[in-house]
Specification:
The chain is α/β, with parallel strands linked by helices and about 270 residues long. About 30% of the residues lie in helices and about 20% in strands. It has a single domain, classed as Metallo-dependent phosphatases (Purple Acid Phosphatase, chain A, domain 2, 4-Layer Sandwich), CATH 3.60.21.10. A hairpin with a 5-residue loop joins strand 10 and strand 11. The protein is globular and about 75 Å long.
Length: about 270
């Protein structure tokens, strides 16, 4: 059975409509969403309501958590005070726009979803805010999957789609006992089957160098993964961002397909959330 995985919708209604239409065209009925329904974008209520209407199983993203729990839920850092001020503005704007019913929906989302040996999270099994980057240390990446009791871990948060395979291998540990007296060494070897991390990228704010929305299709029988890109009316969302009063830099990022990060005003500056 093939199923679609979407993530990081970020209040971009045009992108979500386009991706759902593409999924429908593939004849796929099962969809899982990895969170971040809101933030940055201009249509938080419309996006949440569309997910609710389609009854798409969804786990809670970091923006979804922060809107409910407040900015203190965040453990991220900003490159500059200007970027931090933009984050505060976007958070407050989104919180003011969301209906109480949609806030309740976000508040009650689970941190993870599981189907057999497939695990679905926003950031990592440890936190909605942790980034599982494609160049993450292999042992650390394997630990995230293995300790979660999964064969395949689906995540988002980075806005950059990828498939990482941690192929069959082994971990060997040798412990020397009683070195001074020439004691024996104890050796243990653990054989590891294939484990995978699949990042769905971002529907609403792609940062992979392209303006197309991304999502993945996973075939549970064959194990194949397809990363799909879907074009949508980017300018429609950009205009709505500017008209809503959100920082215009959010529209600039959508038009260029990557995250804008200016040089830090103070290299020692850390987010005060």
């Amino acid at each position: 059975m093939a199923h679609a995985v979407i993530s990081c919708l970020h209040a971009n209604h045009a992108a979500l409509e386009a991706v759902l239409a593409d999924i429908d065209q593939q004849g796929i009925d099962t969809i899982t969403c990895l969170g971040d329904l809101v933030g940055y974008g201009p249509q938080p209520n419309e996006v949440v309501e569309l997910i609710r209407q389609r009854a798409i199983p969804t786990c809670q993203g970091c923006w979804d958590e922060d809107i409910i729990e407040g900015l203190n839920a965040c453990d991220c850092s900003y490159p500059s005070q200007l970027a931090e001020r933009r984050g505060h503005l976007a958070h407050q704007w989104t919180a003011d726009q969301l209906s109480e019913e949609n806030k309740d929906f976000l508040a009650n989302l689970p941190m993870s979803l599981r189907r057999d040996r497939l695990l679905f999270v926003h950031g990592s099994p440890n936190s909605q805010h942790e980034y599982l980057l494609p160049n993450m240390d292999a042992f650390a990446a394997l630990e995230r999957v293995e300790t979660a009791g999964a064969d395949t871990l689906f995540c988002g948060h980075t806005h950059h789609p990828y498939v990482r395979e941690l192929r069959d291998g082994s971990i060997r540990v040798r412990v020397q006992e009683g070195v001074a007296s020439g004691g024996p060494s104890l050796e243990n070897e653990i054989n590891l089957p294939l484990r995978r991390i699949i990042n769905a990228g971002s529907v609403g704010e792609p940062r992979h160098g392209n303006t197309n929305a991304t999502y993945v299709i996973h075939d549970e029988q064959t194990g194949t993964v397809e990363i799909r890109e879907v074009a949508y009316d980017v300018e429609r969302t950009c205009r709505a961002i500017v008209e809503s009063g959100l920082p215009p830099i959010f529209a600039w990022r959508l038009r260029h397909g990557f995250e804008y990060a200016e040089r830090a005003d103070d290299a020692s500056h850390v987010c005060e959330r």
